[in-house]
Amino acid sequence: EPEVTQTPSHQVTQMGQEVILRCVPISNHLYFYWYRQILGQKVEFLVSFYNNEISEKSEIFDDQFSVERPDGSNFTLKIRSTKLEDSAMYFCASKPQVGSTDTQYFGPGTRLTVL
Amino acid sequence: AQSVTQLDSQVPVFEEAPVELRCNYSSSVSVYLFWYVQYPNQGLQLLLKYLSGSTLVESINGFEAEFNKSQTSFHLRKPSVHISDTAEYFCAVTNSGNTPLVFGKGTRLSVIA
């Protein structure tokens, strides 16, 4: 069964460094998302992406964040200058169609630790 | 704005006992409701969903949830749990096809032998 994959599973970085989290959505899916979960808190929406542009973003997704689909298979989340409070589990998700209530399929997550 | 409340952060239960994980939501418009499960070191997997029609929805592994519009609830139940059901369970809501999911804080179900 096809699945969303994410790399790395765990990323440790120093405050102020740039990180790129990578996701490979399911191949025929069209709509992509990033969510994050700070330890002990809710899973929160960051950004959605369709047709090579951001569709919607939350207030968390400020200028330090960016997303890209560089090659038609990968979907990346970049944090330009990490802060301690960026430490969280980051989940990528994808959905087959636009405008339907199809299920969002989630990856296993990347645990980001900022020191 | 939508929100989801999962009242119990942890629920310990003995094997073969029934369990109910509570979920309440707030929304001013029609909703679609989901339960996701996260096993240790894995991603979020869809357990079941309510989109329309019958208010009682079931999963393939014996869980069920009932959409109650008057009580704005979508509680998850299983009549007899197994050790393998030990996981974190997340309730989520959205009001259209593309809008992001709004999640609750999750409930950690621990099944005790």
Give a description of the structure:
- The complex is a heterodimer of chains A (115) and B (113).
- Chain A has 115 residues and is mostly beta strands.
- Helix content of chain A is 0%, strand content 50%.
- Chain A contains no helices and eleven strands.
- In chain A, the strands form two sheets. In chain A, strands 2, 4, 5, 6, 9, 10 and 11 form a seven-stranded mixed beta sheet that branches. In chain A, strands 1-3-8-7 form a four-stranded antiparallel beta sheet, with no helix packed on it.
- In chain A, strand 5 and strand 6 form a beta hairpin.
- By secondary structure, chain B is mostly beta strands.
- Chain B has no helices and twelve strands.
Summarize it.
Chain A has 115 residues and is an all-beta fold. Chain A has strands spanning 5-7, 10-13, 19-24, 31-37, 43-50, 53-57, 65-68, 75-79, 88-95, 105-106, 110-114. Helices cover 0% and strands 51% of the residues of chain B.
Order of helices and strands of chain B: EEEEEEEEEEEE
Mean pLDDT of chain B: 91
Number of strands of chain B: 12
Instruction: Give the CA-based shape of chain A.
Output: globular
Oligomer: heterodimer
> What gap, in angstroms, lies between the N and C termini of chain A?
37 Å
Major pleated sheet of chain B: 6 strands, mixed
Residues in β-strands, percent of chain A = over 45%
Supply the helix-strand structural class of chain A: mainly beta
- Percent of residues in β-strands of chain B: over 45%
Percent of residues of chain A in helical segments? under 10%
Task: Name its key features.
heterodimer, A: 115 residues, 7-stranded mixed β-sheet, 4-stranded antiparallel β-sheet, 11 strands, globular, B: 6-stranded mixed β-sheet, 0% helix
